[in-house]
Specification:
The chain has about 110 residues and is α/β, with parallel strands linked by helices. Helix content is about 40%, strand content about 15%. The protein has a single domain, classed as 2-enoyl-CoA Hydratase, Chain A, domain 1, CATH 3.90.226.10.
Length: about 110
């Protein structure tokens, strides 16, 4: 971004509603780990319908996995930027907004 490296995650609503299953959770966690290791900003662009319920408990555990990495990113004072796209559901919106260093809605009022 601006010629500087970032760790980037983008969720696509066109693929199973952008929901977070075990693979997506692992990818987000790895992006956060890379941001920590390299001390580069973590940017997550999310468009999510929430947890991927067909995965049951595994999907619900992704909240804990991803938020623990995000909290470690913040504790290390590495920027975390959340770009929220439409559609977003209440739980995932709150989770992204409350944790981000900077939050950008995809549409300005």
């Amino acid at each position: 971004m601006g010629g500087k490296p970032i760790s980037l995650c983008v969720m696509d609503f066109g693929f199973i509603g952008g929901s977070m299953g075990s693979v997506v959770g692992e990818k987000v966690a790895r992006a956060g780990e890379a941001a920590l290791a390299e001390r580069i900003p973590l940017l997550i662009v999310s468009s999510s319908g929430g947890a991927r319920m067909q995965e049951g408990t595994y999907s619900l555990m992704q909240l804990v996995k991803t938020m623990s990495v995000v909290e470690r990113v913040k504790a290390a004072r590495v920027p975390f930027i959340s770009v929220m796209t439409d559609p977003r559901r209440a739980a995932s919106s709150h989770r992204s907004r409350s944790s981000a260093t900077s939050t950008w809605p995809s549409q300005m009022p």
